[in-house]
Amino acid sequence: MIEVKTKIINNAGLHTRPAANIVKLASKYKCEFYLNKDGLHINGKSIIGVMTLAAEKGSEITLIFDGADEEAASKEILDYFNRGFDEL
Amino acid sequence: MKSDAENILKGIGAAPGISISQAFLYKKELEEIVNDEISDVEDALQNLNVALEKSKKELRKIFSLAVDKLGDKRAAIFEAQIMILDDPILVKTIEDRIRNEKRAPEFIVHDEISKYTDLMNLSHETYMRERSHDIEDIKNRIVRNLKKKKWKSRITSDVVVVTTSVTPSDTVLFSRVNVKGYVTDFGGLTSHAAIVARSLNIPAVVGLHDASNRIKDGDLLIIDGYKGEVILNPTEKQLGDYQKKIARLQKLDIELVKLKELPASTTDGVEIQLMANLELIDEVEVVNQNGAKGIGLVRTEQLFEEYEAFPDEEEQYKAYTKIAERIYPNNVVIRTFDIGGDKVLPVDLKEPNPFLGWRGIRLLLDNPQLFKSQIRAVLRASTHKNVKLMLPMIASIIEIKKSKEIISQCKEELKKEGRAFDKHMSLGIMIEIPSAAVLIKDFAEEVDFVSIGTNDLIQYLLAVDRGNEIVSGIYQEFHPAVVRTLHHIITGGKNAGASVSLCGEMAADPFAVPLLIGLGLDTISVSASAIPLIKKIIRNLSYKELKSLAEECLQFKSEKEINTRLHQFYNNKEKDQIKNLY
Q1: Do residue B66 and residue B157 come from a single domain?
Q2: Is residue B214 domain-shared with residue B266, that is, in the same domain?
Q3: 8 Å CB contact of A45 and B90
Q4: B82 pLDDT above the threshold of 70
Q5: Catalytic residue among B410, B487, B503, B553
Q6: What is the CATH number of the domain that holds A58?
Q7: Within a 13 Å sphere around the CA of B223, how many CA atoms are in the beta-carbon half?
Q8: Total beta-carbon pairs less than 8 A apart between chain A and chain B
């Protein structure tokens, strides 16, 4: 299991477009993927769940990966967060 | 005998025109959710599956239509809705619950998705609460399909849409069917229904409060977008009167088309520049068709209304360039974002008094990055030298000076980057705050042009919120203070060497036009669809007479005197068929 902390750095926060992209990325992998924000535990392969995370700029989110391809999944998804969802 | 007035509903005329059609009640009320026990689980699961597929099919249609009409970015929300229907976690949870609880799928779907919307509604972010409507929309769609109800908007006959309020996704659908008009309970002149109706050239009456309760599906309606009235199940006499009106209008329309290439000149040869206000990019075609002399106001905040994130410089540049190219060789005035704090970022900002709060230039000066991205985009779109920039909500000279400094910085940057722009791009300000009206001379010396925004000016001058029904009756455009302030601005601005124009609903009021021109205005900007009629009125008037009419009105001490005089003048002057329209 991999657990990493990350921050939302783009101005608009985790809005609909990045939410959809995160789910698309996560769906490519077999491992389980969860997002945790302020105690709210969300399945990262569920678009409706990720959309529910009210994550504005500056929010801290813990990403949790668990499964065979967790290494690759965490790398790609964390990278997308670090790029500010390509909105910087 | 029943009086005619009893069946007349009064609202705000948001888009001109008259039509007589059946009502199509577009109710977004929830389907009744019945918590029935079920015996056949497999059958229920099968129904769920069919409903999900059907919803997906509907949404794909809307999505491709939205991409065409609104562009990729604004269509993103529909794509996300489709993804929700495919959400493996959500669908599996719903299926498991149907199996375990043996309850009707509509109940489980409603209950499960409501968990998410409830969470979103708890959020402090206005943005999140708005997003929850999109999820609700999905929920209602699935439930409706589970009940195998027909998607109502498939009705293609010529109808007037009657509803509480119109959302962007509704308008995407309605744009396909031949809608004859919009009637809504809520909303003002800048509501979505109003904007779409004006750009499609169909009448709209908004702000009717309880129209969607009083009107039943299939009721016959006369909708009068000029007067802001809806006549419910008209009498023989009302029908006859309106049929005559429509016939006269059609005749007038033919005449108006002939005016397209002619100038808006008075009988004694004074030419008035008639420009159009623009809220949608696609409206540019309508602007040109109506013979406008350019665009006097682009409301950029409307242009980007449905963007989720704020548009960046490139997106703005593309949009502004498109407008500038399509309107060339005429000019376009682009007004910077006139928005409140809650719209900039998804931040929770509740101001007790938004109209007196952090909006317009105040917000832009506090967000230099945002301001700069817009100035740079407008400058870059100005290469054909037909673009002007205008600043909203100016109250103090320091705001003009600070803005000019930022504009110079942007020009320097663009020069360094080797990008082309119009070095002499005109700069103007809106005069819509009483302090700016008082100080017009000083302000006008700082800029190339000023534009009077009557909607806000009247509201601030008379301290009346025109959206507040309790006091909207004392929102009076012919209040002596308004007329004299307009006079002060027009003479002060001209004396300082700036050109003076007026944009706002007042310029589209046929009774106000003679007064405005008499006060010395030579440029007015109105909704594109109002241009031909205003032009016809102007071509019938003599400037000399208008001058003395204005002199007279400046002496009156009450709104009633001015109002009566202007109606009398209009009725005497416009002896042809225009007179009978109102």
Answers
A1: no
A2: no
A3: no
A4: yes
A5: B503
A6: 3.30.1340.10
A7: 34
A8: 75
| CB < 8 Å to B90, chain A | 46, 48-49
Partner-chain residue, chosen from A12, A16, A46, that has the shortest CB–CB distance to B77: A16
Q: Which residues of B touch A (CB under 8 A)?
A: 76-77, 79-80, 83-84, 87-90, 113, 116, 119-120, 123-125, 127-128, 131, 134-135, 308-310, 345-347
The model's confidence at residue B58, banded by pLDDT at 50, 70 and 90, is: confident
**At B30, is the pLDDT very low, low, confident or very high (cuts 50, 70, 90)?**
low
Alpha carbons B574 and B572: distance in angstroms, whole number: 6
Q: Could you tell me if B324 and A25 are in contact, meaning their C-beta atoms sit under 8 angstroms apart? A: no
Under the banding of pLDDT at 50, 70 and 90, the label for residue B582 is very low
| Cβ contact A20–B79 (<8 Å) | yes
Asked whether residue B100 is assigned to any structural domain, the reply reads yes
Closest CA to B357 of B370, B344, B371, B375: B344
Mean pLDDT of chain B: 86
What is the arrangement of strands in the sheet containing B159-163, beginning at the earlier edge strand?
Answer: B8-10, B229-232, B220-224, B18-25, B159-163, B179-184, B204-206, B12-15
Judge whether B361 and B391 are in contact, CB under 8 Å.
yes
Cα A23 to Cα A50, B77, B133, B247: the distances in Å are 8, 15, 21, 57
Judgement on whether residues B427 and B393 belong to the same structural domain of the protein: yes
Looking at the domain assignment, is residue B52 inside a domain? yes
Q: Average the pLDDT over B279-308 and give the result.
A: 80
Residue B364 is predicted with a pLDDT of 92
Reply yes or no on whether B410 is catalytic. Answer: no
The model's confidence at residue B66, banded by pLDDT at 50, 70 and 90, is low
What is the arithmetic mean of pLDDT over B336-355?
68
pLDDT given for residue B297 in this prediction = 95
Q: In this complex, do A52 and B119 lie within 8 Å of one another by their Cβ atoms?
A: yes
Nearest CB to B89; choose among A40, A43, A56: A43
The residue of chain A with its CA nearest to that of B369 is A11
One domain, residues B359 and B381: yes
| Percent of chain B topping pLDDT 90 | 51
Residue type, B362: R
B375 within 8 A of B407, measured Cβ to Cβ: yes
Measured in angstroms, the CA of A87 and the nearest CA of chain B are apart by 9
What total of structural domains would you count in chain A?
A: 1
Predicted TM-score (pTM) of this structure: 0.63
Contact A20 B128 (CB under 8 A): no
What ipTM score was computed for the predicted complex, to two decimals?
0.90
Q: Which of B80, B113, B123 sits opposite A47 (nearest CB)?
A: B80
Residues in chain A: 88
Domain that holds residue B75: 41-146
Which positions ≥6 away from A37 have C-beta within 8 Å? A53, A55, A59, A60, A61, A62
Q: Is A15 a catalytic residue?
A: yes
Domain range enclosing A25 = 2-86
pLDDT of A56 reads 83
Cα distances (Å, whole numbers) of residue B41 to B35, B45, B89, B98, B489: 15, 6, 20, 7, 74
